[in-house]
Amino acid sequence: MLFKQQALLRQKLFVLGSLAIGSVLYLVARVGTLDRLQPICPIESRLPPAEPEQIPIRTLQYKRGLLHELRKGNATKEQIRLHNLVQQLPRAIIIGVRKGGTRALLEMLNLHPAVVKASQEIHFFDNDQNYARGIDWYRGKMPFSFPHQITIEKSPAYFITEVVPERIFKMNSSIKLLIIVREPTTRAVSDYTQVLEGKERKNKTYHKFEKLAIDTNTCEVNTKYKAVRTSIYTKHLERWLKYFPVEQFHIVDGDRLITDPLTELQLVERFLNLPSRISQYNLYFNATRGFYCLRFNIVFNKCLAGSKGRIHPEVDPSVVTKLQRFFHPFNQKFYQIIGRTFNWP
Ligand code: A3P
């Protein structure tokens, strides 16, 4: 009986002992695994070292937060002072070309944390009445920004208005100038489509594009038609070059901004001496719109207004060819000046 009890006790001790050894072995193994998964160093030291020129991430948040409130006029003077916010004159201007994709370019550049856009077209330099109001009026139209950010405005009329280059030069002779261009005939048709839509909205009739673009007496291209004249890019650029060296301009390919915006935006980032911050994450193709749209962050994204990306009316192919032939020599000169070639006919 006693022998039987001792054997039972030995058995229990053996089981308990095995369990204890098993647990110890498990813990050793587990701690080892955890050790491997979690580095011992404190959390902070595992963060990548901050690049000195890096724009604080807060800036981007403010763009959707405080700066947005400021734009709506909801922020207090105290907040402006506290955050060291200022209204700065633009350090870069999108001067044109109308219907080249100026709005898309501005909105896309605004994805960059170091860029702040003036939402409205200010028309300071091309409108005599506005210009007479003075530079402080112009500055007052600019959005609030942090001192390290750059403000950009766009007024496409600047490109074709004679007095503008001299006026901008007087404000800042080292300003950076952005011009976005599209294939000239397409741009002219886009220009026509916008005007046509305006007329239709007012229940007004309007000529067909062919009638405006071709002089019925000579059967030649009508160079008096504004949509044609605006597309002679070299003529306008030459006026600008009387004031600014060609290095101060960057020409954006508006056709490529539609199909491959990131590549064009990265070229602009480089021109503006900005660190590359706009990424593929910020741009997504919206099949319904047929265009790229903008993603600022996980909650905020937007496409351009419906007035951008209109359906163009069909144009007589012989008129298209005539226009393309007309623009060809001007395009060649344009390429020569800017040192960049486009796939235009
Ligand atoms: P269309 O309406 O002829 O298609 P702007 O802003 O200078 O007026 O230019 C308008 C043009 O921007 C549009 O011309 C459109 O093709 C072009 N565009 C470029 N990227 C765009 C985008 N992501 N969304 C909408 N339109 C865009």
Structure characterization notes:
This protein is an alpha/beta fold. The protein has 16 helices and ten strands. The strands form three sheets. It has a five-stranded parallel beta sheet with strand order 3-5-2-6-7. The protein is globular. The chain starts with a helix and ends in a 7-residue tail after the last helix. It binds adenosine-3'-5'-diphosphate (A3P). The site of adenosine-3'-5'-diphosphate has 18 residues, from α6, α10, α14 and β9.
* Mean pLDDT value: 85
The run of helices and strands is: HHHHHEEHEHHEEHEHHHHEHHEEEH
Number-wise, the strands total: 10
Shape: globular
Distance between the termini: 109 Å
CATH superfamily of the domain at 88-184 and 231-309: P-loop containing nucleotide triphosphate hydrolases
Active site: 99
Domain Sulfotransferase: 90-333
Family: Belongs to the sulfotransferase 1 family.
GO molecular function, one term: [heparan sulfate]-glucosamine 3-sulfotransferase activity
Summarize this structure as a short list of keywords or feature phrases.
Rossmann fold; 345 residues; 16 helices; 10 strands; 11% strand; three-stranded antiparallel sheet; binds adenosine-3'-5'-diphosphate; alpha/beta; five-stranded parallel sheet
Provide a compact summary of the structure:
It is found in: Golgi apparatus membrane. With 345 residues, the chain is α/β, with parallel strands linked by helices. The chain has helices at 2-37, 43-46, 57-64, 66-72, 77-82, 102-109, 128-132, 135-140, 164-171, 184-201, 209-213, 226-230, 233-240, 254-259, 261-271, 317-338, and strands at residues 86-87, 92-96, 115-117, 144-145, 150-154, 176-181, 249-253, 283-286, 291-295, 301-302.
